[in-house]
Amino acid sequence: MKRILITLTALLIATAAYTQKNMHISPLFDGKGKWSLKFSATHIEGKSLRPYELTLFKSLTTSDYRLYSEIESIIESDSKDAIDKECGYINGKLYYGFYQFKPIDGKYRYIFYRNSSLRENEPNEVTIVYIEGYPTLARLKEMFR
Questions:
Q1: How far apart are CA 88 and CA 29, in angstroms?
Q2: What does R_g of the chain's alpha carbons equal in angstroms?
Q3: In tens digits, what is the pLDDT along the chain, a chain of 145 residues?
Q4: How far is Cα 60 from Cα 33, in angstroms, rounded to an integer?
Q5: Contact 91, 119 (CB under 8 A)
């Protein structure tokens, strides 16, 4: 019985790691290499997400303007695999993006991006959010209005 529990736990961890690992944003969330100590990070899993039908919530925020272009490129790379997306640009730069990816194990995956430094009256920062869960993009927008 103990072996079965250990095997199931390992499979769950491997599946959770895989879902984000096959995306270009993975190094940002790993916090290693050149990305370490460059972001304020949030990581939420478990009971607190159940009311939203989510299983994972990760966010990163940085005000290091030297990273903005590279982060935008990473987001644009992942956006090519999105099954649904909504984007807005200011002066040719990506201001916001909502991207929905093919479900894995019945869970949708999302990236939300916003570069608020492109507007005068907003903070000089870039925010990236990675979410996994069961609601559609339309349902998420409804929940977080």
A1: 24
A2: 16
A3: 444 333 333 333 433 444 466 798 988 888 776 666 678 889 999 999 999 999 999 999 999 988 899 999 999 999 999 999 999 999 999 999 999 999 998 999 999 999 999 999 999 999 999 999 999 878 887 876 7
A4: 16
A5: no
DSSP-assigned beta bridge partners for residue 40: 61
Q: Is 128 exposed, middle or buried (0-12, 13-18, 19+ CB in 10 A)?
A: buried
Query: Which residue in this structure is represented by tokens 């290693």?
Result: 32
Burial of 3 by CB count in 10 Å (0-12 exposed, 13-18 middle, 19+ buried)? Answer: exposed
Give the whole-angstrom CA distance, residue 84 versus residue 99.
Answer: 6
The first and second tokens of residue 84, run together, are 């649904």
Amino acid at 54: L
All residues at 6 or more sequence positions from 113 whose CB lies less than 8 Å from its CB, including other chains: 71, 72, 75, 94, 96, 97, 99, 126, 127, 128, 129
Secondary structure of residue 125 in the 3-state scheme: coil
DSSP 107: E
